[in-house]
Each structure stands twice: as structure tokens, then as C-alpha cells.
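Entry 14: structure prediction run for FAD-dependent urate hydroxylase. Input pasted below.
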Amino acid sequence: MKALIIGAGIGGMSAAAALKQQGIECDIFEAVKEIKPVGAALSIWSNGVKCMTHLGMGHIMDALGGPMHNLAYQDGFTGSVMTQFSLAPLVEAVGERPCPVSRADLQSQMIDHWGREKIQFGKRIEKVKQNETGVTAYFTDGSQASGDFMIAADGTHSAVRSHVLGYQTERRYAGYVNWNGLVDVDENIAPGDQWTTFVGEGKRVSIMPIANNRFYFFFDVPLPKGLEEDRSTVISDLKGYFKDWAEPVQILIDAIDAQATNRIEIHDIEPFDTFVKDNIALLGDAAHSTTPDIGQGGCSALEDAVVLGQCFAEARLITNTDIKNVLKSYEKKRHFRAKDLVLKARKRCDVTHGKDMQETQAWYDELRAEKGENIIAGLSNTILGGPLA
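Run finished. Output C-alpha cells:
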């Protein structure tokens, strides 16, 4: 039995690992000739770390995960601490630590774990066709490949999604721009073992520790879509948006390498319930493109892969119809959870970024009274909703 995996990102590589565990041959096709991940890093929360371990890649998280032991919110203007607490109770409650990681390093090590030479790069999918015996992918270079089924993990701009859904989806602008990158750890910016977030005016500056003594940083600013800004203006743009903010924020801006900083207009896609059409299944951002506001985008792709593997493990495959039933089982088990995470992220996005400033101010007031229990309870609830709780 052969699966065609479209995309060698986190979703595609985790799907391949899950299917390999079930003895299924996988051919992996990646559109770009050279992997250049969008975004400097990402937070893999405990549910995602559990998935990586389940898929045989826990050692990657051990190597890449930063020492994020505490969490704090600080006032963006004064720098005063609004709330600060240990994440140890979270780890105890869910049975695993969270791991902020370099996105490039994570994807690279997942590819190396599979075997870089086994992946076909420069294969951008153009169309797909299905029949009773399987599925064929047609690529823009004129080549094609056939298999028993396809897992389309080709991202938020998925070329396969419209074939599965029967219509083109529209990306929804979430209302803010995100700048992100990496800098060396500097305790004048934030403690090296803490996720620190400065908030104010619906804006956010966040710093997470990752491996090799580095901080992952991101700046969020509510802005109209389509402003003409680029790497040449990163420093001046951020100094303008955060002119009167606290000294650690200014130190961070001065430490940034503008040429290595990403600027992204944040979008999501209205959740849909259909992940599968016959022998093709969507996975990861192709199935549930979300904003990064609860840190569950990568985790949700990993969960997809685990559930996909579980569905094949539970089945006794004999015919092509059996594959379709397995993929439908995957869809049934994943679409409610995936939709919930997208909508939770959207709700958090609106509060964090000042869609209603009265509501955002109320959240700031709540943070000043927070002892950690409520935030940890919310994180635990999200994490324990995964397939490996």
C-alpha cells in the first residue's frame, strides 16, 4: 500500500511517520526546491510534544525545546509585572513540558529523521485525479505519481483543498501584523527560562526561550491589510509602533537583525467539516488554517497525524473501500477538535489585539489579578483535548 504525501512541512512529515508505523509506504513531494520555513519559531505545547514522542521523534523535541519554565505578562509601557508564575503545575497536570522550538530546525530534523534523499523536492502539485483504484498527482514540471491514497499537507494555500471541498476557500485577515525572529538570550530583555509577554494598546511583544541560548521574539500590531513595509524599514517601523514602551522592548528592537526578521499579515480560514474526498485527506493547515494566538497550529497538525495513524491501526485493510472508510474515520475524529482550536485562537486573537478595546482592557485587568491558576487551567484544557491525553 502506498500513500502520496503532498508537503514536507510539519504536517506532511508527521503524517509520513504515522503511516510508516503502520507499515504503509510513503512517497513525499515538496513544492519548493529548498526549505525556507515561514516564521522563525513556534510553540509546541505539551500535546504536540506527546505526539512527537508517539511518532518516534521525541528526541528532536529534547534537542530543540527551550527551557520555558515560567510565564509572565508585563505592562508594555512601564514594564511592571502583571502576573508571573511557574509552569510546573501545568507540566504536572498534563504529563509533558511545552517546547518552544526553531521552526527551521524542527522541520530540518524531521526531514533528516525520515531521510532527506527520500523526499522529492521541486514538485508543485497542479491537479489530482481519482478512480476506483487510487489517486494520481500531476505536478507543474510535467511529472506525475500514483498511489492508493493521498494526504494533502500542502499548507494554508493548499492546491488540493478545492478538489476535496468542491470550492475555493477565502483567507480571512485577522487584523494584525506579526514580526518574528531570533536573538541571543539577554536577561535585560527577559529571563532566559520564561515566556515573557508585554501588552498594551492591543499590541503584544513576546519572548520565548528556545535551544542554543536564543530567544524567539514576536511583535503584534493591529494594522490595516496591505501596508507597504519591508525588511528595510523593520527597525524604524517597530520603533514607531512601540515608541513609548518599556526599556526591555527597546533593547529587543535594537538587537534585531532586520534582514532575518519575518513580517507576516496574519490570516485564518473559516473552519469547515470536510477533510476527505474518497482517497484524499487534508491534514494540517490545509484542513484547518488558524491564527497563532493559542500556539496550536503545529500541534494540531501533529494531532492529525497521530489520529490518522490510529485509524489505520484500528482497521483491517483489504480493499480500496477500506481506505476510504479509514480516511472518513480520521475526518470524523478530527474536524470538531480542529474547528474548536481555530475558533479558540480567533477569539483569543480578538481580545489580545484590541478588536473591542473595552474587552481588551478588561483582560489586562484580569492579568493583574491572575495568580496562574486560570491560565494554567485554560492551557490544560486545550492540551488534554488532544488524542494522547
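Notes: The mean pLDDT is 96. Will compare against the previous run tomorrow.
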